[in-house]
């Protein structure tokens, strides 16, 4: 009969060697078009594939038991089976080392195992036969007497999951290897291929995101909360960009990322937003530029405008648009914190063109890897003993002439010729220069991609700079080459005043006491704790007021004219003229502030806190919470049994929140002082069982939580608290019995 050589090694039988036994013979029902080995088909009134496989496995087990009974010290099971095949082959004049179906049945018969022709065909299909229709004896003897794990390894396998539309592959019943499972998976023994066709299609029913509770304020290193042109709040949580309509209490979402977003920047037009993420399992980190405006007809966000992938980098840690919006600074999370300066529209057009590059390239790979069009500068932001080392970037929005006040430099005034990057014990100064051929670059003169280091001394020693804001030019600063002034917030709560000079660069002139350091918070890496400091600085649209916020929960208003004068003269006094402090919570301490933005048309200020809440401060109502969130991983959720719109959530911060999903508001909250990992309501809804990470089990009173009473833990008749410490490990599951008399707690205790 004609034979075909398989296209893929996975199509060969286990242990089959084409160099030793030649091509694999296909059965009469083989698919000649694909060259695949035939699968046993199920038909009306006949045995399905699972039945044949079960019978084959049963006959193999029966053979092993017979051989074990006949074997002795001098003759093993393998010797017995090999001897039986050799004896039958000699008597029938067969080919040495090969056996026909008749010889195969005779061997099993002599060993006391009866075989039907259908089972013999299945055996030959499983272990393989050559072009003459004979099975290699050595292959069968080795395979059938091997251990279970070895047999599994020899089974036919395929790489990758079932594909939609590939109906020929649905009947495959061997081992399937694909990335979520290292050892492979198997179809159930009674698998119906029709189920594969159904599961390959997306279900008609689906889920759509309606509302996100909380804001990403735990791990941001720069400002990540802004007002857009429509006065909506723009921020992110996890991998979702959020546009919150604060007037109608409605949210719109950007779903262009496939992993956690790490940073956000607002375009000067206050419509476009840039967000950067960490690398995902399916691709590199990407920067998305998207429109935060809501379409008036569809009610949806206008969506993605541009996308820049960064192959080979672990994450994007900071972003910043230039004041004209044409250029974008991207800082990646590699060891050098590489700083990229883009003409982002040109880069997006090149990456999106047919035949263009698929990812951002810097040109360091040689002629075969030219730099991405639109990439102006690549440089090292710096590295240190802590990660991240660079926290953010800030452009000078007031324009400046680089290289001094020469006549030839006047043409590039207001070309946004400088920015700074800041972070752990540094502020680095990047200025615009041009090479001999007219190519622009950022860095210091004669050194593309190499910034100037700012000087802290003699005012102070180098310290962590958490935020930067440029001051509007005044007096001599307005003329070309007049320099600029900027304000920097430190981790200790101080404010540093810097000035720029065409020849001296960037240097610190004064230190002002501003905020208290605030409580210590966990570091982003290393497991230690650190101070929060002055995390936010923002300039009001009128240019007359600077607003600062820090780890002490205070927001301060400063006069920019006074700050600029203080930067030039040590004798000028400088203090904030207004201070507002956020309300303290159950720990009697205001939350540390991590982000801040000023409203475009009023005196309102919006801040994001370390507890993942968003607050707004206005002249009439003062500070008030606009949006609540958890400040740690949410590990537990329970739905009220009688009010399905009431949901309880618990986080490792120790807080339990009750939410009204109809109104999308927080109903009540409770601080258990234990990391919460499990929740469960009693059948009557009066009690809420709380399982904790340290093995503590609490029973909370639902009504007391709603009324805000101090005693929220249920008390027995003897006034003792319903608090149990029977477990040493985390209690992830808590469930009441239907009658509410018993409570089951599932813990990690061994």
Please outline the major beta sheet: 6 strands, antiparallel
Arithmetic mean pLDDT: 86
How many distinct beta strands? 47
Distance between the termini: 61 Å
By helix and strand content, what is the structural category? alpha+beta
| Low-pLDDT regions | 1-10, 28-48, 400-415
Radius of gyration: 35 Å
Oligomer: single chain
What descriptive keywords fit this protein?
750 residues; alpha+beta; six-stranded antiparallel β-sheet; four-stranded antiparallel β-sheet; 33% strand
Kindly describe this structure.
By secondary structure, the chain is of the alpha+beta class. It contains 11 helices and 47 strands. Helix 2 (49-70) packs across helix 3. The radius of gyration is 35 Å and the shape is globular. The relative contact order is 0.05. Residues 1-10, 28-48 and 400-415 have low confidence and may be disordered.
What's the topology here?
Layout: H1 18-21, H2 49-70, H3 77-92, E1 98-99, H4 101-110, H5 117-127, E2 135-136, H6 137-144, H7 148-154, E3 157-159, E4 175-178, E5 181-186, H8 193-199, E6 226-227, E7 233-237, E8 240-245, E9 250-254, E10 261-266, E11 272-277, E12 286-294, E13 301-309, E14 316-321, E15 327-332, E16 338-343, H9 344-352, E17 375-380, E18 390-395, E19 418-423, E20 426-434, E21 440-444, E22 447-448, E23 452-453, E24 465-470, E25 485-490, E26 494-501, E27 505-513, E28 520-522, E29 529-531, E30 536-539, E31 545-549, E32 554-559, H10 560-568, E33 578-581, E34 593-598, E35 605-609, E36 614-618, E37 622-627, E38 634-639, E39 646-651, E40 655-660, E41 665-671, E42 676-681, E43 687-692, E44 697-701, H11 702-707, E45 723-724, E46 731-736, E47 743-747
Parallel strand pairs: 3-4
Antiparallel strand pairs: 1-2, 4-5, 6-7, 7-8, 8-9, 10-11, 11-12, 12-13, 14-15, 15-16, 16-17, 18-19, 19-20, 20-21, 20-23, 21-22, 24-25, 25-26, 26-27, 28-29, 30-31, 31-32, 32-33, 34-35, 35-36, 36-37, 38-39, 39-40, 40-41, 42-43, 43-44, 44-45, 46-47
Helix pairs in contact: 2-3, 2-5, 3-4, 3-6
